[in-house]
Amino acid sequence: MKTHAIRRSACIASALAALLAAAPDASAALPREEAVLTQAPQVPPPIARRTPAHVVVNLEVKELVGKLADGVEYTFWTFGGTVPGPFIRVREGDEVEFNLHNHPDNKLPHNIDLHAVTGPGGGAAASFTAPGHTSKFSFKPINPGLYVYHCATAPVGMHIANGMYGLILVEPEYGYPPVDREYYVMQSEFYTEGQYGEGGLQTFSMNKALDENPDYVVFNGAVGALAGDNAILAKTGETVRLYVGNGGPNLVSSFHVIGEVFDKVYIEGGDRVNANIQTTLVPAGGSAIVEFKCEAPGTLVLVDHSIFRAFNKGALGMLKVEGEPNLEIFSGKQMDSVYQPEGRSPPREEEPAPVAGEKELSLADQMAAGERVYKQTCLACHQASGQGIPGVFPPLAQADYLNADHDRAAAYVMFGKQGPITVNGVQYNQIMTPQNISEQQVADVLTFVLNSWGNKGGQVQVKRVKEIRAGGPGPFGAGLGPGGGH
Questions:
Q1: 218 with 253: CB under 8 angstroms?
Q2: d(C-alpha 27, C-alpha 4), whole Å
Q3: Closest CA to 62 of 100, 98, 106
Q4: What single DSSP character describes residue 110?
Q5: Separation between Cα atoms, residue 304 and residue 469, nearest integer Å
């Protein structure tokens, strides 16, 4: 009886094994495709299919020297040879086969922790890879949203601080609503032995990282990576979606676009949507999806609204919107007239109103007064020693463009400047707004700059500044009075 039962169990097991062998492999039945990976700020196209697929991701780790700012290099550790790493786009319910390749020229082992993975370490242990080797693991993304990935090899903070992070988007089963433009923006910070802007090859500072005191806070891996010629683009009437990540490793981002209100914010990259948001928090190791419609033309500025990071450490990008003016939404400047506070008598028409302090000063007095104006008005953009911010604001120190024409410089201070200029062989294409300072202050600050930081010297007189202002906008798009030059 016992023997018969054993034989019957064996027959059942054999039959089950035969059925399993004959049954099709569920993963093999899925269509197979290789993931499209894109470098920031570009995003792979939306996923059109509405069923799962077997998606193969191939990602290579490279250790390389690259540009952190103009004249500043850094040894980055990267996914895919870029900082941030490539944008990965998959669909909820896909089967993702992940292959991590560690280039044989690298010196260190690396791995990857994808916050979209449900499993130990986000795949970190399964992907630990020595130089010259490849590791493979698979996962099913079951939670839609926008997720950070990063290296999690010890010391984890150092691997992240050196550039090893990126974003993976898990689209919901039926995708996101269509928009006209999608871009990939990722904030992070760098800790260097040298100070901000110090030239040459910089190395990682563990002490600064432990103190959470970065020299650089940037978008997409470098100062100016999203500014000037690298600005992202849109047209009026278009809706823009930004996939925003924060690689950290330490700081929380207060992400803001100057001149826009976010119509939608997918909070922390999930499925909860807020509307009409001015600034959204993006935690270190977190994300947000923001959407807005471009109503009026002009340059919108992307910043971390912890604002010294933007103007002094590099967290500044640009979205250039082209199209016809929309005067109903934004008029531009409509009037500039004299303001008389209550109780103050207006000047008589037959003589100009006196302006306190407007007189010709000695060079020493102008230098002292001009230094005060510079610190109050110019320092944030052009920096303490006139070095500017690489890729964003041009230098004033030893600046050929400045030294070539003092009248032109005075006109730009008073009337502003928009459009490309070349300073010391480098092109800048930013906006300088008119400065709300007196003619005396214009003369003083230019005299200070012209006699500082290796410039060629000279003294700008207030009388000449008055003549330039009276001349109105001239051939350079700024006020150039008669007798240009210096």
A1: no
A2: 38
A3: 106
A4: B
A5: 35
Give the phi and the psi of residue 312 in degrees, each rounded to 5.
Answer: -125, -15
Q: Which residue has the tokens 């040459």?
A: 200
**How far apart are the two ends of the chain, measured CA to CA in Å?**
115
Q: What tokens appear for 36 in the block?
A: 């499209």
Q: Give the start-end residues of each E strand in 105-261.
A: 113-114, 134-139, 145-150, 165-171, 181-190, 200-202, 216-219, 232-235, 239-248, 253-258
Question: What single letter denotes the amino acid at residue 407?
Answer: D
What pLDDT score does 346 carry?
54
DSSP conformational letter for 457: -
DSSP letter for 65, please: E
Give the chain's mean pLDDT: 88
CA distance 218 to 190: 8
311, containing H or E segment: helix 308-313
CA–CA distance, 338 with 358 (Å, rounded to integer): 17
Asked whether the beta carbons of 293 and 259 are under 8 A apart, the reply is no
pLDDT tens, position by position, 178-230: 999 999 999 999 999 999 989 999 999 999 999 999 999 999 999 999 998 99
Separation between Cα atoms, residue 118 and residue 73, nearest integer Å: 37
Residue corresponding to tokens 């214009």: 442
> How many helices and strands in the chain, by DSSP H and E?
11, 25
Burial of 435 per CB tally in 10 Å (0-12, 13-18, 19+): middle
pLDDT > 90? residue 379: no
Whole-number Å distance between alpha carbons of 444 and 466: 13
Tell me the C-alpha to C-alpha distance, in Å, between residue 379 and each of 150, 254, 388, 451, 486. 36, 23, 9, 16, 25
Instruction: Please tell me the distance from the alpha carbon of residue 189 to that of residue 216, in angstroms, as a whole number.
Output: 5
Among residues 380, 384, 243, 222, the alpha carbon closest in space to that of 314 is found at 222
Rounded Cα distance between 480 and 412, Å, is 9
Report whether pLDDT(399) > 70: yes
According to DSSP, the residues that pair with 393 across neighbouring strands are: 389
Rounded CA separation 245/242 (Å): 9
Residues in the chain: 486
β partners of residue 321 = 234, 298
